Amino acid sequence: MSELAVSVIIPLVLALAATGAIAGILSGLLGVGGGIVVVPVLFWVFKALGYPADLGMQVAVGTSLVTVAITAFSAARAHYKRGSVDMQIVRRWAPFMAVGALFGGTVAGVVKGDVLMIVFGTIALLVAWNMASPRTRILAEALPQATGAQPAMAGVVGVVSSMMGIGSGTLGVPLMTAFSVPVHRAVGTAAALGLVIGVPGALAMLVTGLGVAGRPPMSVGYINLVAVALILPLSILFAPLGTRLAHALEPVWIKRAFAVFLLLTALRMLTAVF
């Protein structure tokens, strides 16, 4: 292996491993799902390696959904042991969220990468604004009981989250807390629902990416196995740590710092399109 290759590969390996650790901690700590970190990092990694932005974004989303599914299982198990998963919400939302995720993953696999970048950047801006806000916005004292209301909420979260390559926490946690679900319970429930988004979304990205020319080596559909192997182990390892921190800290300043990160990431991704 050439000296140049080593000088490029080693920083990339370290960056992806660090991304996995950070994604795992955030998945348990804030309930935002590690994909909100994994997708932009993978996008810029693939771009640095010379892949077109369209293709790089689709592989980033597909790869992230695999890590989301498996990391969500680890985080959800830790939250369940602490009694912070609302199984009633999980049972009610899961079927509709899964259908939404399958649809969103299919759309993500066939549209141009620019569309995914716009969706990711726009939602990330909204999430950054919400996380930087000092107060939780309460819309009602309980989740709506009207027929079709919660299925519609779950389906929309599934579609948008799958298109972004993220778990349900980024959109699901603020949505649940807006309807008075306690934040720790919302985080734990969102972690469990991350599996519901990750699996069908990843399957859709795998199928739609089969046979596409120019993908990075060791890719199955739009899922890059090398990136999964580098990110996933540390993501799984650090997810329970994030869960413990979530129950021990009041992460106001962590949320605000992460909001700044999201703001900068979203602006950079949107400027890359326009």
Evaluate the radius of gyration.
17 Å
Structural class assignment:
mainly alpha
Order of helices and strands: HHHHHHHHEEHH
Assess the beta-strand content as a share of residues.
Answer: under 5%
- If you average the pLDDT, what whole number results? 84
Largest sheet geometry: 2 strands, antiparallel
Biggest sheet strand order reads: 1-2
pLDDT below 50 for ≥5 consecutive residues: which ranges? none
Alpha carbon gap, first and last residue = 38 Å
Give the tally of β-strands. 2
Count of DSSP H/I helices? 10
Shape: globular
The oligomeric state of the chains shown is single chain
Number of domains: 1
> Helicity range of the residues?
over 70%
Q: Can you put this structure into words, describing what you see?
A:
The protein is mainly alpha-helical. The protein has one domain (3-273). 78% of the residues lie in helices and 1% in strands. The chain has ten helices and two strands, in the order ααααααααββαα. The protein has helices at 3-29, 35-48, 53-81, 87-110, 113-132, 149-164, 169-178, 183-209, 225-248, 252-273; strands at 219-220, 223-224. It has a two-stranded antiparallel sheet with strand order 1-2. β1 (219-220) and β2 form a beta hairpin. α2 (35-48) packs antiparallel against α3 and α5 (113-132) runs antiparallel to α10. The longest helix has 29 residues, at 53-81. 54% of the residues are buried. The mean pLDDT is 84.
